[in-house]
Every structure is written in C-alpha cells, then in structure tokens.
Amino acid sequence: MTETRGTPAGSSAAESLTDWLSARSDAELTELLRLRPDLAVPPPSTMVVLSGRAQQRASVSRAADELDTLDFGLLELLALAGAEETPMTRAELNSAIAERALTGKGKVTKKAVDKSLSKMRESALIWGVDPISVVPAVIGMIPWRVGRALEPAEAMSETEISAALDALDTRERELLETLANSSPIGRTRDAAPGTPPERPVQRLLAAGLLRWLDEQTVELPATVRQVIRGEPVFDPTTLTAPVIGGDKLKPADVNAAAAGEALELVRQCENVIAVLGAAPAPALRAGGLGVRELRRVAKTADLDEARVSLLVELLSAAGLIASGTPDPAPISDNADEYWTPTLAVDGWLNASTARRWEVLASAWVDVPRVPWMIGLRDSTDKPIAALSEEGRAPAAPRDRQAILGLLAELDSGQTASAVEVSRLLAWRRPRWSGRLRTFAIERTLDEAAALGLVARGALSSPGRALLHGGDAEAEMQSALPEPIDYILVQADLTLVAPGPLVPDLLEQVSLVADIESAGSASMYRISEDSVRRALDAGLTATELHAMFASKSKTPVPQSLSYLIDDVARRHGRLRAGVAASFIRCEDASLLAEVLASAVAESLALRALAPTVAISQAPLREVLAELRAAGFAPAGEDSSGTLVDLRPRGARVPNRRSRPASRMPASPSADQLASLVRTMRAGDRASAPGRGGVRTDGSRENNAATIALLATAARDNSSVNIGYVDAQGVATHRIVDPVSVGGGQLDAFDPASGAVRRFTLHRITSVSPVDSGKK
User: Fold this and answer.
1) Cα(715)–Cα(85) distance, rounded to whole angstroms?
2) What is the pLDDT of residue 688?
3) 82-86, 689-693, 723-727 — which one is most confidently predicted on average?
4) Gyration radius (Cα) of the chain, Å
5) Predicted local distance difference test score (pLDDT) of residue 728
6) I need a surface site. Which of 31, 334, 454, 561 has the fewest CB within 10 A?
7) How far apart are CA 341 and CA 270, in angstroms?
8) Residue 280, preceding peptide bond in cis (omega within 30° of 0)
9) 132 has which bridge partners?
10) CA dist 32 to 74, 137, 275, Å?
C-alpha cells in the first residue's frame, strides 16, 4: 500500500522512492533540497524527476561525503540484506547490529542508530522507517569491501605492521603500495593453494600483510593500508567514534599564548612588507615567487624560509601584497611583474594589532590554498613555489573548518593531538581519509598555531569566535596584554619593552633602536646608526634625552647620553638639499675635504662657493654616498628644515580577490519552498489523464518514461518500447532495462543477445510486458 501525503513516515511501506518522496511533507522536501542542493539544479519539474536525480551516482557521491563510519556501517548491513531490492525490517537490522557488535566492532546505542538512520533518510539515501529501503547507488560509496565489517577486528598493531613492512624487499613493498594507492582488492594466481611459499604474495600472506579471500583474490588489510599511506591507524569499520583524551588547560593561559603568537605574526608580516616595499620581488612567469627571491626576503627579514612562505601566502590572501607593476618601478626591468605591497597595506599598517591579526586569520581560514605544501615536490618532481598555482587546493577551506570545528566541539582549554584529531576525522569522514592524513593535519594545526587560532594544542577564544562568526577582533584585543608606556634602558645600550608599547612610544623606540628579539617582551639595541636614524627623522638630541628620561623606569646610563650627544654634535654639520641636490657646509675645510674625496666624482659634485656645492644625483643617493664615504650629512628642504627621507616602499594597486569557491550560492528557504510547490503542481499535471501514462502503459511524458523504465530495471522485468533511430526509422522491441540515467537507457536486447544503449528522447512509448511473474 502506497503512503499518502500527510501519513506519518514509516506507517506503511512505499512502493518506490518516488512514492515515498510524494508522501513527504513540504518541510521535509525543503530540508532534502537544502541538504542536497545539487538536486535543485536545474529545478526538477516533478517528484519523478527528483527521485531519478536523487538516485544518480554523482549526486549520491556528494551526499555520501557527509556520512560517518556508523552511517556506512548501517548501510553495509542493509546492503548485505539486499535492502536495495527487498526492504529490511527494523527488527532484522537490530539483529544484524547485535551480531556485528560480537565481532568487536563496538556496541552502539539505539539512540545513535536512530539518529544515523534519520540523517540518511533526510538526505534520501534510504527511505522508509520500517521496513527500510536503500538507494542502490549508495552501496557503491561504502569505503570498504561490503562484508568486511562482519569479520573479526584486525589483530596486528601499528608497531607490528611497521616492523613487518621494514623487513620487506623492494618488490613486496611495491606490491603493497600499489594496493594502498588504488583498490585494496587484488587478483592474482599466486593466492591459490600449493603456490611456492617464496612467492611475494605468499610471503605477504604469511606475514599478515595481506588477507586471503579466495584462490585468485587477496585484500590489503585496512590497518596496513593506513600505515603505508600515513593515515591514523584504527579499525575503520568500528561503530563507535574514537575518543579524544588531551589535557585540560586554563583558557586564560591558552589565550595568552595565542596573543603572543599574534604579536609575532603581525610584526613579522610588517617586516616582509617593508622588504618587498623596498625591493619588490620579481614574479615567476607562472605567477609564483621564486626560491631565490624567497631566500632573499627571508634573509633580509631575518626569518627562515618556511616562515616566510606562510607569511607571503597570508599577505597575498589578505590582499596586502600582489603581483603587478609597482610604483615606483624597480630599477631592474628583467621582469614584467613584481610581488609588491598593495595600496591597502597602508591602512592595515595603521590599524590596531587585533584588527591586523583578524585580517590575516580570516584570510587563512577562507583561502583555497595550502601554504605548508610550499617546497614539496609536485607530480613532475619540481618544488612547489610560494604563491604558485600548484599551491591551490579548493578543498582547503573545508578541511580547515573540519579540523578546527572538531577542536571547537571540545571544552575551552581542552587539548587534542594531531593523531587524535586525524583518527576522529577519519571516523567521521571516511571518504576524506586520503586527504586528511596525519601529516596534513599536523601541518594545518601548525599553521593555526602560528596564527594564534590554536595554542598549546587547544583552540583559543579568538579562534573559536572566528569559526562561529563572533567578534574575533574583540576576543583577540582582550587576550593581548595592555600596551605599556615605559621602557627599561640598560647599561649595555639595550632597552627592554616588558610588553607591547603604546603606538607613540613604539614609533620613537623603533626610530632610535633596532629590535634584537621580539615577543611579548621585546629587546632593542641602540647604536650610532640607530641614533643617527632618529636624528634624520627630525628628532633632536634634547628630545631623545627627554624621551629616555621620562619613559625609562631604570636610570639612563651615562654611555647612552654620551652617544646621543656625540652623534648629534657631528650630525647635520654637512647638509644636502635639492638642486637636483645641493650640499652646504659652514665649515669650508670640511666641504673642501668632500670635494677632494672619491665620492665627489661619483656624485659629479661642483662647488658654487666655499660653503656650497651641487649635484645632479637625487638627494637620497647623495646622502647614501656621503655616508658610505664616512661623512655624516643630514637632509634639508629649501627652508633649511630637516626632512625625513626614509623610504616608504613601492606599492601596486589592489586586485579584485578571486572568489574562494566557484560553487553557486545556496538557494534560500523561500526559494526551496517555492520549488517544492512547483513539483507538487507538476505531479498533478502529470497524473493519469493529464499527460502521464496511458491505460495501456505507453508514455505521455519523459518523466513517466523514466519512472517506468527505472521500475522495470529494479524489478528485472521486460518492457515494450517504441524507438525512432537516427535515420528516422520507427521500431518496437521488447528489452530488459538494466539502468537509466544521463539521458540514456541501457537494456538487454534479446534479439541481438547484447546490452544496447537507447537515447531516452528517441523512445516514443513504453509499456510493461506481462511475463506471468507475480
């Protein structure tokens, strides 16, 4: 008896998936289309079309990606009972679950089973409540051999497997790796009894690294496959999820560690921006950043190459650097495009630390790239370059969401190791296990730790807020230590900032001292060059003395006062200006010394008076050459005021960011509800007498044809079809449908004794053949 609309789900068995879908409520159908949005593109006109589309292999494959091991375990039991043809009762399923638990695959609760069945029912991968039917295509999505779960759990441990693998010769290892990277089932005549024991297959069977299935078939055990592929080792058919242990840390300690990483990340990004602004890096022809340039940036910014690889990927994802023609253009014209900071970088540099961190962290979560792959070998055995196309991975944002989302489910401060995360993710998403290997998860968590999303193995509060759409910037701001307005000057001409400095003081300290070590507490060193840099920027000796006296909580050492006075006394005695450039000096003998030196020729200096000379070189070049020759000039403008000639760096215009995903936007709930109403109307229009199937079973529309052919294929029954071939010749023939999909019918034609393919739109009529079967 077929369910009618409004009948409680499962009160009676539906004859087909189409009947079952027709009996669902509008809300249930809307939920189905939300869970499987591909079913709505293009909009199905009737339930027949929706049912056919829901059973197509490509659509079922996408839906199966969301299933966990328990879901697949129940599907396996249904498949073993033949539920794709004959529905399985709930009592039979419960008995099969109890039998499976006896094999050591875990005891699962009735609540968990009900939840799993409900999830698959909502996605139309199964239908009916009692009895239960299975969409045939989903059986092929089970990520292990059907029947494997009913066998005893594998006995060899990871250590034993590794030891056995180490003892193999090259040929045996290659055989296992072939099975590990393809299908675990292998066909070989060496599996037959009586085969000499020295054959590779027999040796692997004896070592427990292969399982014997029959005289011509062997199987690679799942745990052996996991060890070879670097996946977490556990029985993938167990019905219960692995448990995460981990330690319980104070959330405040986790957030403090995350804040320290955020401070370091922002500072290092500033350094990379400064390096690329001063000397843009030529882009490779393929668009990436070459190894030589990456090393140059790393050396100049005093960072290691792996760290710089991550930083440039973050800056590019955030739109803070891009490839293009910079302004001003580099002196070298060997490249067409250069990796250069964008115009947006100035706004980012002036933002708060928390805001700058939030920009970088958000970019990492959403960017479809895998920074940790830089330096690895691609399919052609070439190293993957930073910012190159080879680093793209459309699934990367989804993988990060899965990894960090798992940590977000834990209590605040609870830690989880990469192995634990990888094992649980493999259980939850067994069809992703090839992508989410332990190594990949370790590297992803390392990147998350470098960004302050994860700290000490636990998700930080800013990271949790970023994942859940909260105010991540505010969370990071509260985690960052409060800025301080003092420093500690020491006798060895170093100064310590016990915490992040307020912006004004940080600017002054950065001018007068060079950073030696950064972190929550930073150390700077004062030198003659750094003091001269501060004087060049317009600060006076008096202002420097006052700054140290008022901001240092320790006594200002006399050596620092002497250094400032000595540099200031010599600073600016020789002054350069714009003529293109000019040099003036009240001390005629000093200017004469300059004119007599080698630098006078390189700058093409010409004396206009005993105290004035001019040059055709730019002012910045004049200052650099004079300083290199041992003089201490200061720059001034036409009024005699000192000018700050520190380089600002090159810039390129911002480029429109590439969308993270090419997937179309999901339809709204109202749009899905409207689509359901349209299908209901289509069903009424295609009812018998309104363009459906005539009383003789012949076709009046394409949807009815598909439904009748699909039913015949499922029931192994024959149909009489009218068919017009490409030459326009019309014929009638009796065939046995095998499969329907993709606009084609595959059917066995008894006349030719072979399976033939028919184009659906050329089929003019379909009627069942009474074979006498009940």
Assistant:
1) 8
2) 54
3) 82-86
4) 36
5) 64
6) 334
7) 10
8) no
9) 88
10) 20, 17, 53
Q: How far apart are CA 265 and CA 680, in angstroms?
A: 56
Would you say the C-alpha torsion 261, 266, 269, 275 has a positive or negative sign? Answer: negative
Distance CA 654, CA 298 (A): 24
3-state secondary structure of 488: strand
Per-residue confidence at 363, pLDDT binned at 50, 70, 90?
Answer: very high
If DSSP codes are grouped into helix, strand and coil, which group holds residue 101?
helix
| Under 8 Å between Cβ of 629 and 590 | no
Hey, what's the torsion of the CAs at 16, 17, 19, 20, to 10 degrees? 120
Given the structure tokens 């000499």, which residue do they identify? 196
Rounded to whole angstroms, the Cα distance separating 66 from 79 reads 19
What sign for the dihedral angle of Cα 520, 525, 530, 531? positive
For the chain, give the number of residues. Answer: 774
Query: Side chain identity at 476, as an amino acid letter?
Result: M
User: Which ranges of 85-221 would DSSP assign to H, the alpha helix?
Assistant: 90-101, 110-122, 136-139, 158-166, 170-180, 200-206
User: Could you tell me if 259 and 481 are in contact, meaning their C-beta atoms sit under 8 angstroms apart?
Assistant: yes
**Per-residue pLDDT tens over the stretch 655-703:** 655 544 444 457 788 888 888 888 887 777 666 544 444 434 444 456 6
pTM, two decimal places:
0.72
Q: How would you class 72 by CB atoms within 10 Å of its CB: exposed for 0-12, middle for 13-18, buried for 19 or more? A: buried
C-alpha–C-alpha distance, residues 709 and 568, integer Å: 95
The DSSP call for residue 655 is: P
Which tens digits make up the pLDDT trace of 143-176?
A: 888 887 777 767 788 888 888 888 888 888 889 8
